[in-house]
Amino acid sequence: MKSMNTISPAAESADVATSTPAENTSPDTTVPAAAPESAAENTPEAADPAVAAAPAAAPAAAETPAAPAAPAPSARTLLKQLQQQFPAFRDCLPLAIGIDKQLLARMPGLDRKTMRAALGIHTGSMRYLRAMEKATVRYDLDGTAGAEVTDTHRSHAKEQLQQRFKKEAERKKAEKAAEAEAEAARLRQEKLQQLASKFSRS
Predict the structure, then answer these.
(1) Which residues, 6+ apart, have CB-to-CB distance to 194 below 8 Å?
(2) Helix H segments across the chain?
(3) Which of 79, 119, 152, 195 has the fewest CB atoms within 10 Å, counting from its CB?
């Protein structure tokens, strides 16, 4: 199994491959992609800076090529599977630090690249950020409460939400301006047509 080594510089505290314990983790203020529509190719950064590291896969030994493995599921397909299988994902609970290691232990054949993408989509969702903003404890895969959520991570979630709201407001404002411009252009065109019709009759 191959590991993915290309990681966004801004994801130092959020990336699933390099997180540190919650008390030593400084939040990453980079806003993740709103809701990536592609799967693992556009791997989003985990919005929760405490989602911990997945160890790099060991290099494959030089052996006779085996039969090709079945293609890994897309990140969104995997996320749906996790939501069906584990209460922590289904109920959108604040995830325990090292949840990726728990996943690998329970699902040994899990593709790490796809897992990182799925975690990024999940922890970058508005629902998860709202849960993290007010969270007091984190939960393992089965929904069992564990370590406390730090003020740093609550603040990080709040900042992510504020930036997301700001971008959404800017997007809506731009859409309204574009609609107004299109309407003005339509009215100008109608007036020109009316003038052309009037002069053609005279």
Answers:
(1) none
(2) 75-85, 87-90, 99-106, 112-123, 126-133, 151-201
(3) 195
